[in-house]
Design a protein that fits this description.
By secondary structure, this protein is α/β, with parallel strands linked by helices. The chain has a domain at 8-133: NAD(P)-binding Rossmann-like Domain (Rossmann fold), CATH 3.40.50. It is 35% helix and 23% strand. It contains seven helices and eight strands; from the N terminus they run βαβαβαβαβαβαβαβ. The protein has helices at 16-27, 39-47, 61-68, 84-93, 114-119, 136-145, 162-170, and strands spanning 8-12, 31-35, 52-54, 74-79, 94-102, 124-127, 153-158, 176-180. β2 (31-35), α2 and β3 (52-54) form a beta-alpha-beta unit. It is globular and about 55 Å long.
Amino acid sequence: MGVVEGDTVLITGLGPVGLGAIVNARYRGARVLAVESIPWRIEKAKELEVEAVFDPKDPDALAKVREATGGRGVDFALDCSGNVHAERFCIDAVRPKGKAGFIGECNDELKIKISPDMIRKGLTLYGAWHYNLNDFPKVMDVIRNSPLAARLISHRLPMSRIQEAFEISASHQSAKIILDPQA
Protein backbone atom coordinates (compact mmCIF):
# COMPACT_ATOMS: atom_id res chain seq x y z
CA MET A 1 0.00 0.00 0.00
CA GLY A 2 3.03 2.29 0.04
CA VAL A 3 3.69 2.56 3.80
CA VAL A 4 6.75 4.68 4.59
CA GLU A 5 8.46 6.05 7.66
CA GLY A 6 6.22 8.29 9.73
CA ASP A 7 2.92 6.77 8.55
CA THR A 8 0.42 5.40 11.05
CA VAL A 9 -0.88 1.91 10.31
CA LEU A 10 -3.83 0.16 11.97
CA ILE A 11 -3.85 -3.64 11.83
CA THR A 12 -6.93 -5.64 12.81
CA GLY A 13 -6.56 -9.32 13.64
CA LEU A 14 -3.23 -10.32 15.14
CA GLY A 15 -2.90 -13.94 14.11
CA PRO A 16 0.30 -14.97 12.31
CA VAL A 17 -0.51 -12.79 9.28
CA GLY A 18 -1.41 -9.72 11.35
CA LEU A 19 1.70 -10.13 13.49
CA GLY A 20 3.74 -10.36 10.28
CA ALA A 21 2.08 -7.15 9.12
CA ILE A 22 3.30 -5.47 12.31
CA VAL A 23 6.86 -6.55 11.55
CA ASN A 24 6.54 -5.30 7.97
CA ALA A 25 5.12 -1.91 9.00
CA ARG A 26 7.68 -1.41 11.78
CA TYR A 27 10.48 -2.31 9.33
CA ARG A 28 9.27 0.57 7.17
CA GLY A 29 9.38 2.96 10.14
CA ALA A 30 5.62 3.20 10.60
CA ARG A 31 3.79 3.78 13.84
CA VAL A 32 1.53 0.76 14.43
CA LEU A 33 -1.81 0.57 16.23
CA ALA A 34 -3.77 -2.68 16.42
CA VAL A 35 -7.14 -4.18 17.25
CA GLU A 36 -7.25 -7.58 18.99
CA SER A 37 -8.97 -9.26 21.95
CA ILE A 38 -6.89 -12.41 22.57
CA PRO A 39 -4.41 -11.76 25.43
CA TRP A 40 -1.59 -13.93 23.99
CA ARG A 41 -1.71 -12.05 20.69
CA ILE A 42 -1.81 -8.68 22.45
CA GLU A 43 1.35 -9.53 24.38
CA LYS A 44 3.09 -10.76 21.21
CA ALA A 45 2.13 -7.51 19.45
CA LYS A 46 3.70 -5.50 22.26
CA GLU A 47 6.86 -7.60 21.90
CA LEU A 48 6.81 -6.62 18.20
CA GLU A 49 6.71 -2.92 19.17
CA VAL A 50 3.10 -2.09 18.41
CA GLU A 51 2.26 1.24 20.04
CA ALA A 52 -1.22 0.39 21.29
CA VAL A 53 -3.75 -2.44 21.06
CA PHE A 54 -7.46 -1.69 21.25
CA ASP A 55 -10.16 -4.19 22.20
CA PRO A 56 -12.70 -4.67 19.39
CA LYS A 57 -15.40 -5.26 22.01
CA ASP A 58 -14.83 -1.79 23.49
CA PRO A 59 -17.59 0.49 22.17
CA ASP A 60 -15.10 3.39 22.36
CA ALA A 61 -12.33 1.62 20.40
CA LEU A 62 -12.80 3.74 17.27
CA ALA A 63 -12.78 6.96 19.32
CA LYS A 64 -9.58 5.76 21.01
CA VAL A 65 -7.91 5.15 17.64
CA ARG A 66 -8.92 8.62 16.53
CA GLU A 67 -7.62 10.08 19.80
CA ALA A 68 -4.30 8.27 19.27
CA THR A 69 -4.01 10.01 15.89
CA GLY A 70 -4.97 13.48 17.09
CA GLY A 71 -8.44 13.10 15.60
CA ARG A 72 -7.08 12.63 12.08
CA GLY A 73 -7.41 8.88 11.61
CA VAL A 74 -4.78 6.39 10.52
CA ASP A 75 -2.99 6.70 7.18
CA PHE A 76 -3.41 2.99 6.42
CA ALA A 77 -5.60 0.23 7.82
CA LEU A 78 -5.15 -3.46 7.12
CA ASP A 79 -7.63 -6.15 8.11
CA CYS A 80 -6.05 -9.54 8.67
CA SER A 81 -8.95 -11.02 10.65
CA GLY A 82 -11.53 -11.72 7.97
CA ASN A 83 -14.17 -10.30 10.28
CA VAL A 84 -16.73 -7.99 8.68
CA HIS A 85 -16.82 -5.77 11.79
CA ALA A 86 -13.04 -5.37 11.63
CA GLU A 87 -13.28 -4.51 7.94
CA ARG A 88 -15.81 -1.80 8.72
CA PHE A 89 -13.59 -0.62 11.59
CA CYS A 90 -10.71 -0.17 9.12
CA ILE A 91 -12.84 1.94 6.79
CA ASP A 92 -14.04 4.10 9.68
CA ALA A 93 -10.58 4.47 11.28
CA VAL A 94 -8.67 5.56 8.18
CA ARG A 95 -8.24 9.28 7.54
CA PRO A 96 -9.64 11.12 4.51
CA LYS A 97 -7.68 10.07 1.40
CA GLY A 98 -6.27 7.15 3.38
CA LYS A 99 -5.95 3.54 2.28
CA ALA A 100 -7.55 0.37 3.62
CA GLY A 101 -6.52 -3.14 2.68
CA PHE A 102 -8.21 -6.47 3.22
CA ILE A 103 -6.36 -9.78 3.31
CA GLY A 104 -8.47 -11.74 5.82
CA GLU A 105 -10.91 -14.06 4.05
CA CYS A 106 -14.51 -13.03 4.77
CA ASN A 107 -17.77 -14.21 3.23
CA ASP A 108 -20.02 -11.85 5.16
CA GLU A 109 -21.43 -8.79 3.45
CA LEU A 110 -19.48 -5.58 4.10
CA LYS A 111 -21.60 -2.46 3.82
CA ILE A 112 -19.67 0.25 2.01
CA LYS A 113 -21.43 3.59 1.78
CA ILE A 114 -20.26 5.02 -1.52
CA SER A 115 -20.84 8.73 -0.83
CA PRO A 116 -19.45 9.04 2.72
CA ASP A 117 -16.82 6.29 2.44
CA MET A 118 -15.55 6.56 -1.09
CA ILE A 119 -16.47 9.91 -2.59
CA ARG A 120 -16.38 12.35 0.33
CA LYS A 121 -13.65 10.54 2.26
CA GLY A 122 -11.67 9.66 -0.87
CA LEU A 123 -10.64 6.21 0.34
CA THR A 124 -8.54 3.80 -1.65
CA LEU A 125 -9.42 0.15 -0.98
CA TYR A 126 -7.14 -2.82 -1.65
CA GLY A 127 -7.76 -6.53 -1.57
CA ALA A 128 -5.16 -9.24 -1.88
CA TRP A 129 -5.20 -13.00 -1.72
CA HIS A 130 -1.45 -13.55 -2.10
CA TYR A 131 1.45 -11.19 -2.52
CA ASN A 132 2.71 -10.52 -6.02
CA LEU A 133 5.75 -12.64 -6.92
CA ASN A 134 7.48 -9.45 -8.03
CA ASP A 135 7.37 -8.40 -4.36
CA PHE A 136 9.23 -11.53 -3.18
CA PRO A 137 12.64 -9.78 -2.98
CA LYS A 138 11.06 -7.11 -0.73
CA VAL A 139 9.51 -9.79 1.49
CA MET A 140 12.88 -11.51 1.81
CA ASP A 141 14.50 -8.16 2.63
CA VAL A 142 12.16 -7.78 5.62
CA ILE A 143 12.79 -11.36 6.76
CA ARG A 144 16.56 -10.99 6.48
CA ASN A 145 16.93 -7.49 7.88
CA SER A 146 14.13 -6.75 10.34
CA PRO A 147 15.29 -7.09 13.93
CA LEU A 148 11.72 -8.16 14.77
CA ALA A 149 11.27 -10.96 12.19
CA ALA A 150 12.76 -13.73 14.34
CA ARG A 151 10.28 -12.86 17.11
CA LEU A 152 7.46 -14.02 14.83
CA ILE A 153 8.49 -17.63 15.46
CA SER A 154 6.70 -18.77 18.59
CA HIS A 155 7.18 -22.54 18.28
CA ARG A 156 9.66 -24.97 16.70
CA LEU A 157 8.60 -28.60 16.49
CA PRO A 158 9.81 -31.71 14.69
CA MET A 159 7.67 -32.73 11.72
CA SER A 160 6.61 -35.81 13.69
CA ARG A 161 4.62 -33.46 15.98
CA ILE A 162 2.59 -31.86 13.19
CA GLN A 163 -0.74 -32.67 14.87
CA GLU A 164 0.44 -30.79 17.96
CA ALA A 165 1.40 -27.86 15.73
CA PHE A 166 -2.14 -27.74 14.34
CA GLU A 167 -3.56 -27.85 17.86
CA ILE A 168 -1.27 -25.02 19.00
CA SER A 169 -2.28 -22.98 15.97
CA ALA A 170 -5.99 -23.56 16.66
CA SER A 171 -5.51 -22.40 20.26
CA HIS A 172 -4.67 -18.85 19.09
CA GLN A 173 -1.61 -19.02 21.33
CA SER A 174 0.97 -18.91 18.55
CA ALA A 175 2.53 -16.81 15.85
CA LYS A 176 4.60 -18.65 13.22
CA ILE A 177 5.19 -22.34 13.89
CA ILE A 178 8.27 -23.91 12.31
CA LEU A 179 8.22 -27.64 11.55
CA ASP A 180 11.63 -29.25 11.17
CA PRO A 181 11.51 -32.22 8.75
CA GLN A 182 14.93 -33.41 9.94
CA ALA A 183 14.10 -33.59 13.67
